[in-house]
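Pilot study result, target chain (280 residues):
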Amino acid sequence: MDINWYPGHMTGAKRKMQEDIKLCDVVIELLDSRIPRGSKNPDLTTLAAQKKRVLILNKADMADDEITGQWKKYYEDEGYYVVLMDSRNRKQTLKITDVVRTACKDKIERDKKRGIIAPRPIKAMVAGIPNVGKSTFINSYVGKATAKTGNKPGVTRGNQWIRISKDINLLDTPGILWPKIESEETGLSLAFIGSINDNILELTELAYRMIIRVEELYPGRVLKYYELDDSEVKEDILYKIAEYKKCVKKGSEPDIEKTAKLVIDDLRQGRLGRLSLEKP
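Predicted structure:
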């Protein structure tokens, strides 16, 4: 299943990020805790190579605790500052202030040595792929709605500076992917969590592939949720789920397309329980 989505506005957004990143001291990148590898933009790794890096493993409340802990250590060993977070929880978002100050301690010390009484505020770029929760994080962190939010990719389109405190300014940026997703597994992971526009996907096949991935990693999880038995893990599983959800067309025919959308939404909203779709 070849999955790629790179609409025209992302090209312009990347170009603007290349310009703005020169002004920033630190880059805060949000990842989805369920796919910390798949949601990490390789282009951003290149663009921010000379900057301090903070990774937020967002939606940690939906991911497998043990595996998320492994990812935290994995990225810390690579030199990142890593924070686990549910960005809807303001107490958790406020932890970023101390992490950013720690990441930029060299800059702060340089300002002190130069005798700068009113140091230049730390400029932090907030970046991430579509639908990873950047705007939710920013609104929660600021304590009011300053960024548009939505449950589909492509809501944020422009860059905007937001003053957090006297010493920290945030730059909100649009969610962007990279031009070519080489790995089928990564493409599927991004589609599972809603970072790819559903309109370009074959959702019935995506639902099947999602069920297979979850059952491989968490045997019995899908069956238990939809009250199915082992004998029903076949190609007709969506028909069985359609029966369970009473999802039918006129004439009592199972509505497989609608069922596929419901199954995908069950994963995205965490109804299948806490799970991680990638391991370090």
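One observation from the pilot: Residues 203-217 form the longest helix (15 residues). A full batch analysis is planned for the follow-on phase.
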